[in-house]
Design a protein that fits this description.
The protein is α/β, with parallel strands linked by helices and 217 residues long. It has helices spanning 37-50, 66-75, 83-106, 117-126, 131-138, 154-160, 172-189, 200-216, and strands spanning 25-30, 55-59, 110-114, 146-151, 192-195.
Amino acid sequence: MTLSFNLHPTNHWTDEEGLGARSGKLIAIDGIDQSGKRTQTRLLAEKIRAFGYQVLVWNFPDYKTALGRQLRRYLAGRERFDFHAIHLLYAANKWERASTIARDISLGRVVIVNRYTPSNLAYGMAHGLSRDWLESLEKALPRPDLVLLLDVSPKASFKRKTVLRDLHEENISYLRKVRGIYLQLAKRYRWKVVDGERDPRAVSLELWSYVLPILRK
């Protein structure tokens, strides 16, 4: 299938495009480590801004907060936590920004999150934790209008980053388990699964094919 989109839009939607009044949206981009989330978050934000939307981007974990700094130490191997405790921290880190995200959505802005609730589910379940328990931690967070799952193999992940991988990144068997759980969850919750091993431009075009209808709602 060939996807083709106008990458040089005018600054505003036109009435002919049938886009109507703007309402805020929350879009989550997720996937295993080194799946291209940061690159695709940046490209998507640029496209949506080109149409005149205000776009806010959050990266989780958010290392700017006290909880985020604890998570950074954990991922660097400098602190150890029980798996329940670490996934509580991942959830709490999102709760630190929840009111800001909800406010921006209410003001008609588009919020893009690089990792969100799907991440804690997949990585937590790969640690042997209950899906129901993990969901209970984050079920009252702002709900995404769209979840985009960038699917890459752990082998591809390791090719993209060969050194200085964090506690999760360095464990290829764990990443295989996480990837499999992501794909199971994607079927259950109807997330959009996108092959992230292609050229970034091709990935970006496919993501846009899913995002545009959401913006039109």
